[in-house]
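[job 4471] stage=fold_predict status=RUNNING
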Amino acid sequence: MQIAFHPIGLGIHSPTRSKLDGRKSPRRLGSALFRQTARNVVSSKNSNMTATPLTATDFRHALGQFATGVTVITAPRVPGPNPAPGTAHTSHQAYGMTANAFTSVSLDPFLILVCVDQRSHLLPLLKQGRFFGVNVLKEHQQAVSIYFAQADQTPEAEAKLGIGYRWTPAGVPLLEDTLAQIVCRVVASYIAGDHTIFLGEVQSADLFPGEPLLFFRSHYRQLAPPR
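[job 4471] inference complete, writing structure tokens
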């Protein structure tokens, strides 16, 4: 966020499907399952040692220590307002990308950002349409996250998963049955390495009851019950 979430935190999306592969069931945070032997690191106290060059795997593992929620970024395949009365959008008119590289930026004005892989099919849609939705997934929506982490998306597959959309008057598709639906307008974009950072000004936000789906150390998780 494809949300294939690469190094966690860079944005889960597909062409590179690895990241959120969803092969394992969610595990709860706070268990002893995550005890690992610490790797050696170089600090000022042992600077006489030769530092091992940082690899892409090291980078991903380091970022994987930061637990995140999971979102799906949605946009219309063809930008424009809702159709006239009597007609309707179809699911194939929307495209989504799983992403956990999402964060708040500013309270005045209301700004967020999302990172999109340069190879993602979502990239040209955000550049052309300028409006998009951020949908925060619930704990039971792992299958939805896995689906939108792949490039190939069809109405048939979405029907099997029970995926539905609510379309705003401006023509922005929002996923139904999520924790939050946030509508944003692209106000700036910046190329950063193999991703583009999109800065979005929040136009509206709708919140719903439920618990979040989490992503931590390359696996889906759920919140543990309060003690």
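[job 4471] summary: The first helix runs from residue 56 to 63.
[job 4471] exit 0
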